[in-house]
């Protein structure tokens, strides 16, 4: 069973930014982890979370804080990371507090202290790296097991509908994508705990040991395993599919038949998720993790291009 964060802390209710609240973060680390940080450095790159590199002597960690609406996926991801590290896959598992918690409240968010995962971030720009990513993803999926989609796990995927009128093309596309999922009959797919957003850079290859880990499990959920494959294809492009899928299937996490049947509707769903995500950010004026509203516009336009230009060869 995953543990839940403690009750909100009224003494740290100011909204943090990566470069602010560093003294409060240092106090929190000392109070809950007995960690007296010598250096805390903001890390860039996240649109949904705030992260800091924490150093003490030769040791380092990542402190990560997510908004309240992301708490469930974050806490699930912390539990999954612990399970993966127990099987030998580096995953950035949480360091428990003195009270045995994985996460605590911080400035209106939920924060955890994560183990540092050594290695370089992969890019997926070579066939070799794609094979490593496919192998690592399959090993993670197998280590985390499956859920029966006819039992306790959900048998449908959902998208929020709050901001589908941001662009005239958006609502018809989402309607079409969800109908495609119904036609695919997701109940017949292999469901289990998945990463949820496995961009190439979450794969960390340690050149010293040759071990590849997977970090940043804060978007985890219980969905079809092929969802993670679809996300990787979305990030790297359709050309990347063959070495990635062959390596994944070789590890026995799914069959080729299931991947081929599930990939297209889930790839459409993943792009639809991108469209809804950026539409929401545009509607709210959300600039978390970016400096220019054009980044949100570009994200939405990339999804639009996918649906305008796609063919049936994927």
Automatic annotation (TrEMBL):
InterPro entries, per database record: Aminoglycoside_PTrfase (IPR002575), Kinase-like_dom_sf (IPR011009)
Protein name: Aminoglycoside phosphotransferase domain-containing protein
Coiled-coil features, chain-numbered ranges: none
Bilayer-crossing regions: none
The species this protein was found in: Streptomyces lydicus
Top-level taxonomic group: Bacteria
Domain Aminoglycoside phosphotransferase: 39-252
Gene3D superfamilies: 3.90.1200.10
Annotated Pfam families: APH
Region (Disordered): 1-21
């Amino acid at each position: 069973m995953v543990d839940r964060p403690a009750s909100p802390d009224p003494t740290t209710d100011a909204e943090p930014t990566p470069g602010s609240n560093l003294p409060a973060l240092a106090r929190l680390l000392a109070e809950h982890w007995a960690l007296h940080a010598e250096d805390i450095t903001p890390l860039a790159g996240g649109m949904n979370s705030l992260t800091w590199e924490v150093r003490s002597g030769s040791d380092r960690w990542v402190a990560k804080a997510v908004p309240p609406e992301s708490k469930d996926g974050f806490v699930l991801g912390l539990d999954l990371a612990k399970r993966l590290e127990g099987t030998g896959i580096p995953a950035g598992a949480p360091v428990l507090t003195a009270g045995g918690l994985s996460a605590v409240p911080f400035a209106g968010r939920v924060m955890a202290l994560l183990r540092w995962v050594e290695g370089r971030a992969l890019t997926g720009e070579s066939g070799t790296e794609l094979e490593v990513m496919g192998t690592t993803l399959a090993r993670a999926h197998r280590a985390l097991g499956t859920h029966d989609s006819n039992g306790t796990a959900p048998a449908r995927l959902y998208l929020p509908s709050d901001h589908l009128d941001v662009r005239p093309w958006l609502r018809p596309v989402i309607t079409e994508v969800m109908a495609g999922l119904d036609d695919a009959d997701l109940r017949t797919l292999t469901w289990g705990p998945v990463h949820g957003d496995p961009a190439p850079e979450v794969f960390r290859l340690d050149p010293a040991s040759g071990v590849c880990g997977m970090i940043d499990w804060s978007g985890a959920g219980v969905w079809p395993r092929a969802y993670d494959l679809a996300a990787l294809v979305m990030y790297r492009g359709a050309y990347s599919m063959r070495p990635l899928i062959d390596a994944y299937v070789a590890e026995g996490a799914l069959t080729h038949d299931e991947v081929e049947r599930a990939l297209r509707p889930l790839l459409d769903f993943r792009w639809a998720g991108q469209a809804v995500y950026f539409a929401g950010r545009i509607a709210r004026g959300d600039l978390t993790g970016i400096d220019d509203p054009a980044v949100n516009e570009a994200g939405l336009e990339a999804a639009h291009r996918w649906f305008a230009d796609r063919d049936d060869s994927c």
